[in-house]
């Protein structure tokens, strides 16, 4: 039996999609990536090296995220429904990219998202490159906080979280003040020796200068 050594090669899927920057930091974009569309194998690939079908599960060997400045890599990986070592299809990988885009939508940050898969018959390397094109860090117009909420907090009471943040309904908020309150929430969790990922989501339900704000929390309690 002839042994074939297959190196990682340009993948059966490479896509790019854009999400425009929000017109105001309380508004959200809605663009999502297109459906999977396998592309031909790269020139020079050995004819015996067969790319897996889009529905065939492969093992994730590596995940790379680059270009993200306003959203941390841990926050991005917290919303991806798989990790290194998982068995996934190409469609599931693209769903991971969609989840990242939704995270950017929640934080009202525009961007272009590029996905490249390098795979052989059994393994895949996932590369996500993000070009941020705008977002809360670039917009300073103050808005009036209409309501404040929290979800996902299992180990710290909502009343304690409301006391920790500085802005309350009726106050003016900007991306800078939201960041300050994120740090206050983080400090409370550090004091309790609990890890947490914080994702703020702002909405303007009345299409005016009033905004609702919800902090989505993913707790990681220590043993």
UniProtKB/TrEMBL annotation:
<dbReference type="GO" id="GO:0019867">
    <property type="term" value="C:outer membrane"/>
</dbReference>
<feature type="domain" description="POTRA">
    <location>
        <begin position="148"/>
        <end position="220"/>
    </location>
</feature>
<feature type="region of interest" description="Disordered">
    <location>
        <begin position="29"/>
        <end position="52"/>
    </location>
</feature>
<dbReference type="Pfam" id="PF07244">
    <property type="entry name" value="POTRA"/>
</dbReference>
<protein>
    <recommendedName>
        <fullName>POTRA domain-containing protein</fullName>
    </recommendedName>
</protein>
<feature type="signal peptide">
    <location>
        <begin position="1"/>
        <end position="26"/>
    </location>
</feature>
<keyword id="KW-0732">Signal</keyword>
<dbReference type="InterPro" id="IPR010827">
    <property type="entry name" value="BamA/TamA_POTRA"/>
</dbReference>
<feature type="domain" description="POTRA">
    <location>
        <begin position="58"/>
        <end position="109"/>
    </location>
</feature>
């Amino acid at each position: 039996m002839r042994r074939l050594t297959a190196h990682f090669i340009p993948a059966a899927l490479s896509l790019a999609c854009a999400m425009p920057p929000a017109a105001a930091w309380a508004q959200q974009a809605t663009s999502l990536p297109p459906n999977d569309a396998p592309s031909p194998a790269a020139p020079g690939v050995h004819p015996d090296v067969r790319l897996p079908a889009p529905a065939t599960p492969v093992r994730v060997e590596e995940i790379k995220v680059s270009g993200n400045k306003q959203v941390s890599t841990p926050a991005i990986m917290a919303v991806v429904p798989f990790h290194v070592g998982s068995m996934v299809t190409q469609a599931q990988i693209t769903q991971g990219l969609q989840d990242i885009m939704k995270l950017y939508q929640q934080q009202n940050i525009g961007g272009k998202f590029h996905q490249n898969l390098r795979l052989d018959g059994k393994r895949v390397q996932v590369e996500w490159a993000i070009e941020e094109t705008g977002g809360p860090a670039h917009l300073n117009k103050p808005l009036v906080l209409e309501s404040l909420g929290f979800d996902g907090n299992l180990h710290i009471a909502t009343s304690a979280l409301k006391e920790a943040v500085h802005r309350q309904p009726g106050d003016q908020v900007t991306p800078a003040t939201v960041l300050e309150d994120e740090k206050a929430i983080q400090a409370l969790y550090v004091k309790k020796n609990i890890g947490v990922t914080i994702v703020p989501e702002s909405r303007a339900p009345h299409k005016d200068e009033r905004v609702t704000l919800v902090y989505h929390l993913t707790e990681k309690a220590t043993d």
